[in-house]
Amino acid sequence: xxxxxxxxxxxxxxxxxxxxxxxxxxxxxxxxxxxxxxxxxxxxxxxxxxxxxxxxxxxxxxxxxxxxxxxxxxxxxxxxxxxxxxxxxxxxxxxxxxxxxxxxxxxxxxxxxxxxxxxxxxxxxxxxxxxxxxxxxxxxxxxxxxxxxxxxxxxxxxxxxxxxxxxxxxxxxxxxxxxxxxxxxxxxxxxxxxxxxxxxxxxxxxxxxxxxxxxxxxxxxxxxxxxxxxxxxxxxxxxxxxxxxxxxxxxxxxxxxxxxxxxxxxxxxxxxxxxxxxxxxxxxxxxxxxxxxxxxxxxxxxxxxxxxxxxxxxxxxxxxxxxxxxxxxxxxxxxxxxxxxxxxxxxxxxxxxxxxxxxxxxxxxxxxxxxxxxxxxxxxxxxxxxxxxxxxxxxxxxxxxxx
Length: 403
Description:
Elements: E1 2-10, H1 14-26, E2 32-35, H2 43-51, E3 56-57, H3 62-65, H4 77-82, H5 85-94, E4 99-101, E5 106-109, H6 114-128, E6 131-133, E7 138-143, E8 148-152, E9 156-164, H7 170-178, E10 183-188, E11 191-194, E12 207-214, E13 220-228, E14 231-233, H8 235-243, H9 245-250, E15 254-260, H10 267-280, H11 296-305, H12 319-330, E16 332-337, E17 339-341, E18 348-352, E19 357-358, E20 363-364, E21 370-372, H13 386-402
Helix pairs in contact: 1-6, 1-13, 2-6, 10-12
């Protein structure tokens, strides 16, 4: 069977739907189809944000927003000036979906259900007459003089303009590489660190704001650090994993993590502070109560790791014990041995080389009438609604340009 369309979008996820809807709203005459290889569309939207769909982030200044993208920071500056988080909120409002801001800046539908976003997209494609075809696994893509031809397992399609929003799909990347595009190989981008260490062994669930560094590397991040039964997680660790995606992959996820539990206090400042505490609390047991802004159980564990037993009083601390404790507090070294995927939100770094895309139009620089949006390109962000924002912005720009 041969089906002809003006525009075909391959990939029935967030970017694909947003692009299709924006195109047909701007020009209802266009015949548009979305091809999805799976049985159902928008499955990643369904599970995102723990089933609530973290639509975007309340960061409204393009030059600030780009800082959340380890890959894509430079390239997204222009696009975000065209369509930013504020535009996303307005777009969804116009389509009957109200969003709310949480304390950490993440934005969700007020219904707290990703189904709201899915229903919004499905009813729009339905109303606009966009064909949504599932079970269409693309086998080949090739270009003729006038058209793009797409063969799936069951049908042959032709279109004037082809838009790929297939996320991190290795098969599609391979097809693109066959027609000359450079693909940066995919590596995991958001992951937590596996650490077996007596200092944190029984502290799962505890959280503290810390500064974390990879030893002998420039990689560094700050943020809440969460102790889990397999090691360390939380925003600070995820940030480090995103910025270090390539480097940590090359290290085979074996490295030493340096943790400053006091975040920005230096060795000297910490030692001074401990000497003051020694005078102030001379009669009290060191391990009893944390004098810093983190949990008592963590403090007790670090005190024990400094060879100070539970009965030792502040007054009796030796110079060596003070130095040990200072080291544990602001330069604790933990051996990382592998990684774990962060929830089910599997984000990868990798995709089409950014140099081969025109970010004013999201069109391929190598092939006319071929466009990309979403995670198919080598752009990724930390968790918090940023990966979706990249998808919305790309889709909007394609629609503007095509129409």
